[in-house]
Design goal:
The complex is a heterodimer of chains A (174) and B (178).
Chain A (H helix, E strand, L loop, with lengths): L3 H19 L18 E3 L7 E3 L8 E6 L4 H16 L4 E6 L3 H11 L5 E5 L3 H5 L7 E5 L5 E6 L4 H17 L1
Parallel strand pairs in A: 3-4, 4-5
Antiparallel strand pairs in A: 1-2, 3-6, 6-7
Chain B lengths: L2 H11 L7 H24 L6 H11 L18 H15 L4 H12 L14 H31 L4 H11 L8
The chains are: A alpha/beta (174), B mainly alpha (178).
């Protein structure tokens, strides 16, 4: 019994350190999960005289994807979004974050445009309301306008298949 | 150009000599108007730092974590994220918002993680109380083991023969020479 105590303490320590190693410190849990999506109204990327707002999307499940032409990881994520848009499962609204309009439009021309619409957030003010700190970020927002999920960094095929799509299906089924 | 030159020049523009005092007054008014404008322009300049706001920024910025460069504070980082947050904080302070309103604004968006000192609440209770709990356990273990050792020492009893031997061995030290 006496000899088991240091061993037990050691095992506990190893478990704590092991869990600590597996956590990704760059992924900060968002306080906005299960909260109403912050309101915004932005000029559209392709048509500055028209706006896109969160209230336009009420009544449907939608993805809100933060992207920019200067963002390297967005390029990595992009084919996945194009493929998702082609399958027509869920509308994807883009938040073009702190980007030049012409650069952004050219980027979409070159790589394909998966977005139903994109808002042009040149100041990054809407991004701040959504707690954006690393582009790309993606939010799943439900019919009532509540944020249900946040992906920080590019969506991996695994996260799309095992987390995002099942969640969308579940939300759409309600 | 001095006042006299200006007066002479304006005089020449005014044909009626009985208006003589007027150009002087006009000039004075013009001067006041111009200096007034200059001071207004200075007030409107956005880049002049308000020392009170800068002091608040310095005090608060060190308590906030930069989320993209997590070892650094918002004050100590020059990343795009930190600069955006600093800009927003200054704007809020210029609009008369208090320190706690500014912190609440940031926590609402980025969570408690942006604070270097997490608040005491359910999820962080173990974090705050943990060291004290560990200290308590250590003291308890120390107390119990000391008590056990004390008991064991008193259990050892000496026979009369042993006591006599011990006394004779210690006897040399009785006068303190040894």
């Amino acid at each position: 019994m006496k000899r088991l105590i240091p061993l037990a303490a050691f095992v506990v320590l190893v478990v704590f350190l092991g869990v600590g190693l597996l956590l990704d410190p760059s992924k900060v849990p968002s306080p906005l999960i299960d909260k109403p999506a912050p309101a915004f109204a932005l000029p559209q990327l392709h048509n500055a005289s028209e706006t896109i707002s969160n209230s336009d999307m009420r009544g449907q499940v939608w993805l809100f994807n933060v992207w920019a032409s200067w963002c390297v990881s967005c390029r990595q994520e992009h084919p996945l979004l194009v493929e998702l848009a082609r399958r027509n499962i869920v509308p994807i609204i883009g938040l073009n974050y702190k980007d030049e309009r012409n650069d952004a439009i050219r980027w979409l021309q070159d790589l394909g445009n998966p977005y139903t619409k994109s808002g042009h957030d040149i100041e990054g003010r809407v991004g701040m309301d959504y707690g954006v700190y690393g582009v790309p970020e993606t939010y799943v927002i439900d019919q009532q306008g509540t944020i249900r999920f946040k992906q920080i960094g590019p969506i991996s095929p695994d996260a799309l298949q095992n987390e995002i799509l099942p969640l969308i299906e579940k939300l759409q089924g309600i | 150009m001095n006042v006299r030159d200006m007066q002479l020049r304006m005089d020449s523009l005014v044909p009626h000599t009985h208006f003589r005092p007027v150009p002087g007054l006009l000039f004075l008014g013009l001067c006041l108007l111009l200096t007034g404008n200059v001071s207004l322009a200075k007030e409107a300049a956005p880049m002049i730092a308000d020392p009170v706001i800068e002091a608040r920024m310095a005090a608060m910025g060190g308590e906030l974590r930069c989320l993209v460069c997590q070892g650094q504070s918002i004050a100590g980082s020059d990343s795009g994220f930190a600069n955006d947050v600093k800009k927003e904080m200054r704007t809020m302070m210029e609009n008369g918002r208090s320190d706690s309103e500014v912190v609440d604004f940031l926590v609402q968006r980025y969570g408690d993680f942006i604070l270097f000192r997490p608040p005491v609440k359910g999820a962080t209770l173990l974090l705050w109380a943990g060291p004290f709990i560990l200290l308590g356990i250590a003291l308890l273990v120390l107390f119990i083991s000391l008590k056990r050792r004390g008991l064991r020492a008193s259990e050892v009893s000496l026979s009369n023969e042993e006591i006599r031997r011990a006394e004779s061995l210690l006897g040399d030290d009785k006068d303190g020479k040894g």
